[in-house]
Amino acid sequence: MFSDYKNYRDYVQGLQQLSEKRRLNGASALSDREKQMLSMQEKWAGLENDYFTKIDVDMRIASVGYVADKSASYWLLSKAGMAEFGVSNVTAPDDYGSEAYCDKMKISGLVRFDAQCL
User: Fold this and answer.
1) Are 45 and 53 in contact (CB under 8 A)?
2) CA 44 to CA 48: how far, in whole Å?
3) Which span out of 41-50, 59-68, 89-98, 99-108 was modeled with the highest average pLDDT?
4) Is 73 helix (H, G, I), strand (E, B) or coil?
5) How many CB atoms are located within 10 Å of the residue 37 CB?
6) Structure confidence at residue 79 (pLDDT)
7) Which of 3, 31, 37, 59 has the fewest Cβ atoms within 10 angstroms?
């Protein structure tokens, strides 16, 4: 079902539209396929929420690279940025996630050229 969409952002937007359609018009307004899509999304969202609650990390970290106007297929987050989401005990260079670090890694071929530091 994800394969029906160009990218993750379109997929999420499609699910939001289905959820709104159900809210406004009731579940009977959805096709069987639309009901199945929402059911699967709700199941996975619950499992994802349980996982991030268990590890005590803000689950928004999983979507950092999908922020509007800054979408990136590959991204690096600084240690300070990770800490904002509850990720701790990270061993990384002091400049990890900085623009200088990204540039150095891109030139050396260790990260993709479309990677962004956030």
Assistant:
1) no
2) 6
3) 89-98
4) coil
5) 20
6) 92
7) 3
pLDDT in tens, 21-60: 999 999 999 999 989 988 888 888 888 889 999 999 998 8
Please tell me the distance from the alpha carbon of residue 111 to that of residue 88, in angstroms, as a whole number: 23
| Sheet strands (E) in the chain | 75-76, 116-117
Mean pLDDT, all residues of the chain:
83
Closest CA to 76 of 112, 103, 116: 116
In contact, 59 and 49? CB cutoff 8 Å: yes
User: What would the two tokens of residue 71 be?
Assistant: 């979408």
Nearest 5°: CA angle at 114, between 6 and 87?
A: 90
Tokens (6 digits) for 4: 């029906």
